[in-house]
Amino acid sequence: MKSNPVLDALRERRSIRKFTDAPVSRDDLTAILEAGRWAPSGLNNQPYRFLVIHEDDARASQLAECTKYGHIVKAAKVLICIFLDRRTVYSEMKDHQGAGACTQNMMLAAHSLGLGTVWLGEIINQQDQVLDVLRLPAEQYELQVILALGHPDQKGSSKRNELSEYMLEDF
What we know:
By secondary structure, the protein is an alpha+beta fold. The chain is 36% helix and 18% strand. It contains six helices and four strands, in the order H-H-E-H-H-E-H-E-H-E. It is globular and about 50 Å long. The model has no long low-confidence stretch (mean pLDDT 96).
């Protein structure tokens, strides 16, 4: 396959669960948030909202108590909480897909900057607790994902099935 920076990033990005002590710069964080902002959404309604929690914020340790992956939350230099703003939702399925696209954009942006992320999805099972910790109203915000972010202190690994295993019919 011909080399292409976007396709290369898609293949190279890995979930990173261990981070160094190096801080994440404000410029890098802004670039990652901008990448999320540019994700596609149905009717261009842009329903996602972000909350950034730094490691020294007391809410970070409280969020660690909301998930069985608390050790990852504690290791991250930054947590990016991604929500849907219920006031802007017009199609639940499309808006959830948009939040997924937003999340993927952020993860790829972080990778392109030499940073690592992991998508913490299990934490949404404790959404009420998370919203309490963050002092956000459940009637307005729906937690989609929390991204743990930092400089990688591990090499990620991944394996994929052959493309033919995904195909319903030959193309």
